[in-house]
Amino acid sequence: MSRALDERRAAFQRYKEDVKERGKPFYPYAMFHDTVMSLVVVSVIIGLAVIWKYTAGEDPNKPGWLGPLYAEPADPGTTNFVPRPDWYFYFLFYLLRIFKWPNTVILGTVGIPTVCLVLLLALPFLDVRRERRLLRRPVAIVAAILTVLSMGVLTYKGATAKESLGSETLAAVPTWAKRQGFENNKQALAGAKLFATAGCEQCHTYLGTGSSNLGAPDLSAIGKGQQAAFFSQYVSNPRKFGNPVMPIYGETFDKTQLDQLGAFLAASKGPH
């Protein structure tokens, strides 16, 4: 151990002497290069912003060279929006699709990324050789190639992945119907499917699925003591019932869909 440490110290000393004899100081050489490259990057960003600004009109249907100046206004009541990450997170997006089961989600979200990050941080301390020729560093080259390939494949798969809106929640509808006892109620079944695909579970929970946000209640037993007509009217315009947060779905759904949602909520009297 002592011998290896002495060899590393001697190699470092030779490196410092070599830099002093043949190398160039950081200032002004490296600083000048960094400054020039920074100016180039900023100039490219400014140039792209100018091109985007002056080639795009205000009409979203007539985009410029780099896209439209304005997009359509956000619709909080949309039922067909599938959220997707930015392209540089596609690899993680598809990794989570691989580890989609509840018991393995922690592996895809925390386990694998954390292990990779720890290895990356530890690499300079594990590999202290001064050798820089690629052919004499097979382990590093193979690791780099595998990393690039895996990231590239996951990014491509994430970019081309096809999704059906609310597919996982939609698959739970038969279980809801069985537990709530409305398997033979076609109106309630249609409302449950609409509930599963309309994004309602972004704020509400139902039989253990969804997430509770903005004070929205659990709807598993919401139907006790209420009729379907009440829920149809409530979903159509929550403002009339003193709810200023929930979107007005009367502008999104037609009367048939509102009646289906009302029947579903009225049939939700708690699991048997």
CATH 2nd-level architecture of the largest domain:
Orthogonal Bundle
Name of the CATH first level of the largest domain: Mainly Alpha
**Number of domains as seen in the coordinates:** 3
The helix/strand class is mainly alpha
**CATH topology (fold) name of the largest domain:** Cytochrome Bc1 Complex, Chain D, domain 2
Into which percent range does the helicity of residues fall? 55-70%
Tell me, what's the shape?
elongated
What does this structure look like?
With 272 residues, the protein is an all-alpha fold. It folds into 3 domains: 1-73, no CATH class; 80-163, Orthogonal Bundle (Helix Hairpins), CATH 1.10.287.980; 167-266, Cytochrome c-like domain (Cytochrome Bc1 Complex, Chain D, domain 2, Orthogonal Bundle), CATH 1.10.760. 55% of the residues lie in helices and 1% in strands. It has 10 helices and 2 strands, in the order H-H-H-H-H-H-H-H-E-E-H-H. It has a two-stranded antiparallel ribbon with strand order 1-2. A hairpin with a 2-residue loop joins strand 1 (205-206) and strand 2. Helix 3 (90-98) packs across helix 5 (138-160). The chain is elongated and about 90 Å long. The chain starts with a helix and ends in a 6-residue tail after the last helix. The mean pLDDT is 84.
